[in-house]
Amino acid sequence: MPAKDLASGQVAINHGADALYIGAPRFGARQAAGNTLEDVEQLIRYAHLYGSKIHVTVNTLLFDREMEEARRLIWQLYEMGADALIIQDLGLLKLDLPPIALHASTQCHNNTLERILFLEKLGMKRAILARELDVEAIRQIRAHSSIELETFVHGALCVSYSGQCYISLMMTGRSGNRGECAQICRTCFDLQDANGNVLVHNKHLLSLRDMNRSAHLQQLIQAGITSFKVEGRLKDANYVKNITAFYRKSLDMILEKKTDFSRSGRGKTTFFFEPDPEKSFNRGFTSYFLGEKREKIASFDTPKAMGKKIGALRQDAGGKIFYEGKETLSNGDGLCFVNVRGELEGFTVNGISGNRIVPHKPLSPFKRVDVYRNVDKFFEKKLAGKTAERKIAVDMVFFEDEQGFCLRLCDEDGVCVTSTVVAEKMRAEKPDVAEQQMRSSLSKLGGTPFALRDLTIEARGYFLQAAIANKLRSRAVEQLSAARVQHFCPKPSMREYQPEPMFDKADYKRNITNELHRSVYEDFGAQSVEYGLDKTLDFKGKEMMVCRYCIRYEIGACSRQKGGGALKLPLYLQNERHRFRLEFDCKECVMKVVAE
């Protein structure tokens, strides 16, 4: 799960995340989601308490002047106990790095078996696959490689293959590969043909719906996926709660049936609400090339969250608004619809009388439209309260020694500690009552990460003051918490760098921005090496995006569709300042956006 900050990371852990990814102070691919080293270290300790892992993003392209600072940062993260680094710049491999696991960011363009085998030779532990890969492609990569495979299953989609998008850098000077994406894909364009005719006017032609692969989790596990990843390091805590809970429950249902798989985190999560991904920010959902049939995946009308479709709105001649649907609405709900101009129009519910709705502002005229709820006031209120707790099962044994009493705690992972207290041993006048009181005091684990599974009293017949019992229990809990953090500290991850001839050349799409990155490709046989566009800023005639998404398919003009070949090619994307030529490789089913 994504961690925007310490608080949202703790929320994700509490709701069942087995791992988190979080940005450090610098060099993360979401510049607005950086965190202090102190907060990262605190989150590492919190995660390790539950056997969960922390993957820190150091996944921007780097210039030569930044390499030493990146090296020092990586050593600091290693010494804090980070489980892995997510990296994009392969020049980091040539630095004096600590023995920490390295994961190849999806921005490394991990879309072919050849690429994955290259990452293996570099000593990477895990590859985060391109979102565009289907199940069969993943299965083939798994069959011919040994590296761990991670794939995205939920969240916002980049229209281009990650790492292969330069349109933000070209148009605004803000580089997506440097953590500063301006989200040009969420803006409006005209689509023109070769004759200058406008085929589509002022629409969000590069804006995709959000990913939701929850229906395909078992398929992906069986194809060889190690880890599922949710996008969203800029999302709020309520989003993290809802989506983490949804996937935790979905995965647990699979794991209950499939005994040959297991989760990597520890502890049992109990939920106090029913998660629903449609009630959190989304632009509509797509499984993104995993379904049996190809689906429409664009969101031309708006890049904003439409939310869950809940029915229809009807407007009478007097302008009154009536709701037609089965959902219960509340004051403060946010509703939206697509108006006659093709724009998303939203409003807040200010009043409800029967099926009549009073909006907070006048609405555009319409007769009947589909309505979506993008703010569910009742659901948001529920999310604002206590929604989950995660507990680790422990067994207690109370016994005596020469100086007083002892309490041994052993958790579900076999981590054990013993707390002792010096105390006078007083025989109880009513042993049964005294033992019951002792059990009550020792069992109070509320507010701790632990849940009592079994309590054995070996030192029987004694009267134990509640204050002493509480002290004994608190010490044991504190000791066990520290022992668990130590127990789940990562072991050194050794890498073997195995250069061999694999490339003749490395072009600008390899995103080389420093001399060490250049030398990696030379080690692997490249005789000709180009620098990336982040360094050269040479855009003319270059591919600004490479997409599996296809505008021709979205508008019903695919060359494989009836009448699809009638377009006057090439097609162009045009906005107020820029013009891009679209190239279609129909054999590979790829669309390229080229700078004119």
Q: What features would you describe in this structure?
A:
- This protein is α/β, with parallel strands linked by helices and 596 residues long.
- Among the domains are: 2-157 and 209-265, Alpha-Beta Barrel (TIM Barrel); 285-384; 392-487, no CATH class.
- Helices cover 25% and strands 27% of the residues.
- The protein contains 14 helices and 31 strands.
- Strands 1, 2, 3, 4, 5, 6, 7, 10, 11 and 13 form a ten-stranded mixed β-sheet that branches.
- Helix 1 links the parallel strand 1 and strand 2.
- Helix 1 (6-14) packs parallel to helix 2 (37-49), helix 5 runs parallel beside helix 7 and helix 10 (431-442) packs parallel to helix 11.
- The mean pLDDT is 95.
In short:
The protein is an alpha/beta fold and 596 residues long. The protein contains 14 helices and 31 strands. Among the domains are: 2-157 and 209-265, Aldolase class I (TIM Barrel, Alpha-Beta Barrel); 285-384; 392-487, no CATH class.
Helix-strand blueprint:
Elements (H helix, E strand, L loop, with lengths): L1 E2 L2 H9 L4 E5 L13 H13 L3 E6 L8 H14 L3 E4 L13 E4 L8 H10 L3 E3 L6 H9 L4 E8 L11 H6 L16 E4 L5 E6 L6 E3 L4 H7 L3 E4 L6 H21 L10 E4 L13 E2 L21 E8 L5 E4 L9 E5 L5 E10 L2 E4 L8 E8 L1 H8 L3 E13 L3 E8 L4 E7 L3 E2 L3 H12 L7 E8 L4 E2 L2 H22 L17 E2 L8 H9 L4 E2 L3 H4 L6 E5 L3 H4 L16 E4 L4 E7 L4 E6 L1
Parallel strand pairs: 1-2, 2-3, 3-4, 4-5, 5-6, 6-7, 7-11, 10-13, 20-24, 26-27
Antiparallel strand pairs: 7-10, 8-9, 8-29, 12-20, 14-15, 14-19, 15-18, 16-17, 16-19, 17-18, 20-21, 21-22, 23-25, 28-31, 29-30, 30-31
Helix pairs in contact: 1-2, 1-8, 2-11, 5-7, 10-11
